[in-house]
Amino acid sequence: MPNKPGTSDHLVIFGITGDLGYKMTLPSLYRLERRGMLPCPVLGVAFDDYTTEKLVERARNAVTDALNAQGEEIDEQVFSAFANKLTFIQGDFTDAGLYQRIAAELKGAKAPLFYLEIPPSLFAAVVENCAAAGMAEGARFAIEKPFGTDLASAIELNNRLLKVITEEQMFRIDHFLGKEPVQDIVYLRFANALFEPVWNRHHVDCIEITMSESFGVEDRGSFYDKVGALRDVVQNHLLQVLALVMMEPPGAGLDPIGENRLDVFEAMRPADPKRVVRGQYAGYQNITGVAPGSDTETFIALRLEVDSWRWAGVPIYIRAGKRMPVTATEVVVRLKRTPGVRIGERLVRPPGHDEIVFRIGGHSGVDIGVRVKTPGENLTEPTWLSVHFDETLGELPTPYERLLHDALNGDHSLFPNWPSVEATWRVVQPILDNPPPVIEYAPDSWGPDDALLMPQRHGGWKLPHAMEEL
Hints:
The chain is an alpha/beta fold. The protein has helices at 19-34, 52-69, 76-83, 96-105, 123-132, 151-162, 180-190, 221-224, 228-246, 256-267, 389-393, 399-408, 418-433, 449-453, 465-468; strands at residues 10-14, 42-46, 86-90, 112-116, 140-143, 170-172, 204-213, 276-281, 299-304, 316-322, 328-335, 341-343, 346-348, 355-359, 365-373, 380-388, 438-441.
């Protein structure tokens, strides 16, 4: 997909007064301003009874909270420049009159970016109203997840949007692809001679992805109960990460990484519900907003396979859950066992597997497992060669900082295209059609016992390094 040339000349954010706007969008825009990379005015649109002055006040609070969490202080000169770019319009997203007022505010803008951080039920209506008000031509539309709730709804939403805008105008946001450690997977794989020779079915025993969260659903019961772990993080975030781990080297195409991610999805077998474990932590049904007797999963583990020349026969294990012992997201590429080595009269059999671990949550980096001689004994013991990105590379751009910058500049590289979104829904649809029953698990555990047994023949689940350090 070609990148649309030119930088957006206005940013319009629908839903700017929401939780996502406070925690992510406003601090990210401040950071872009600090880097000299916010090129245009920012118009906030929301149903809440705000004014521009109140939005500026909220932005200051949001930026201050985000910076304090990082041990930083607000730069008043930078914030003043950012605040001068902010304006606000209040209105009902279903009211055609609202879009006439937006159009008047954007008079003269030729390439606005409309960012929709709003409930998914409003995506199509907002885009259609923008088009009806004459604002779609030359514009870009950044659309938050979820893009559909299953394959049929995703197709319906996409078809509806394509009636008024083109695929090139759409930027479907998956904030995991904006994480620097996720982007580093491609560079680590293809910029280092160490990895590529072993990155195939001849040397890799299995691939594991763990996304564990130590917290629960808390005050998000009414939202989460309609979603569950499969829709929330597997269909989008974790499958996109997996594709980066398994894709072929990028080439010279117009969207080489996106095209190669798609190749992985198209070679991936649809998930088999018999190889899926769904869990729900004890106490979930007591949360406000959760339906009585809910069978929504707060944990899921599944096995996948990819029928490609590189990966045929290599099992892929994915697990994601809430109320786990630790918060961490890691990808483990587990290599096959080495054969025993005869040293004189002794046959030394190194235990276990060597592993390459991508840490893409907190304390991001890469760990390479090696085995060294135990001092004073004819044995080996595992150790790690580790790179910690925050120590080595310094401050990393936040995911929304990167994604907003790329959308403003028309760069689609980090945004899933429609064929990829459709393909990932096809992979998980069998689980949605025939979901296994949920199994209750104890909070602060690793989920149901059935899930723990899934990769047993391949060395079991690796504990995240964050867990090993406790």
